[in-house]
Amino acid sequence: MLRHFAFVLAAGAAALGPVRAQLQDDGPVKMTPELALAMPLLQKGRDITVKYPVFINRTAIVRPGMILRVIYQPPSGSDDSVNLTMAHLGNMAQSYSRDNTPTGGDQSKPQMSPEYAHAIEAARREIWEVPVNFQMALAELPTDTLHLIYSRDGTNQNLDDERIDFYEGLFLGSPSGGVSVLAVETGSKADEAGFKAGDRIMAVGGRPMGPDPESFPPLWSTGREAAKEANAASFDFTVQSPSGATRTVHLPMPASFKSQLMDDFK
Questions:
Q1: Contact call for residues 252 and 189 (beta carbons, < 8 A)
Q2: pLDDT of residue 8
Q3: What span, in angstroms and rounded, lies between the C-alpha atoms of 31 and 197?
Q4: Which end of the chain has the smaller Cβ count within 10 Å, N or C?
Q5: Containing domain of residue 36, as a range?
Q6: b/e burial code for range 127-154 (CB count within 10 A of at least 16 → b)
Q7: Are both 142 and 174 inside the same structural domain?
């Protein structure tokens, strides 16, 4: 199965040549513990799933039973939000011949080349069957450009393609209900604020967490917006450490908000 990993590293020199330049300029995310070890992978027959729900990004939660297929890296300079949606329409033959010329006179809309479409379609059809392939990708490749393709029901239809991203440096999951910190990115806002792996998030902005991890994204957005409207430099989290001790963590607001606040007082 390690031959599949070579696809991500090279992905066909003709189609994904820019990947090599990315690997030289960027590096994998540094976390405590390492992301590759914090990802709770589980072998299920010939498939790979997760032991418990994990946040792949700020909206997508991968749950046990969902089948992980492949991690891949798009070519540099691409517009993921447009290209990936287009690439997942039709089959591989259509990806070669798809008409990507602008329609409706909108010349500014990003378009996808046939080579790009084929590369993404090839990634979509890949299936890794051992956890080590995912661990190697997470450990070796620049995380801010990685995408995970997974299947909600284990079939080849309606595949989800999500960019791997974090909440200001927090890799979150739900090993025992609610939301807990699985790993913290070194030097991130979350790291500077004092989040630690193992912390269980009890409340966000004074609002208590529910038992389902789905309750976290709206709490995050609401707490962040409330702090913005209050011109606060941070918004607060109540967390419980593995020892049972409870503390408040102050997560800094984005620099743009603080800069605007300073501009208002000039």
A1: yes
A2: 40
A3: 10
A4: C
A5: 2-163
A6: bbebbebbbbbbeebebebbbbbbbeee
A7: no
Query: For residue 190, what pLDDT is reported?
Result: 95
The model's pTM is: 0.75
Q: What integer pLDDT is reported at residue 216 of this predicted model?
A: 95
Q: How many domains does the chain have?
A: 2
Same domain as 89, residue 19: yes
CATH at residue 194: 2.30.42.10
Handedness of CA 75, 78, 82, 83 (dihedral sign): negative
For 167, which DSSP code?
B
- Give me 264's structure tokens: 């208002």
Mean pLDDT to the nearest integer, 248-260? 72
Q: Mark whether 73 and 187 lie in a shared domain.
A: no
Point out the least confidently predicted range of 47-56, 91-100, 113-122, 214-223. Answer: 91-100
What average pLDDT does the segment 34-38 reach?
Answer: 95
CB within 8 Å of 85: residues ≥ 6 apart:
none
Q: How far is residue 22's CA from residue 234's CA, in Å, rounded to a whole number?
A: 33
My answer on whether omega of the bond before 75 falls inside 30° of 0, hence cis, is: no
Over residues 228-242, the pLDDT tens digits come to 888 888 899 999 999
Cα 52 from Cα 250, distance rounded (Å):
27
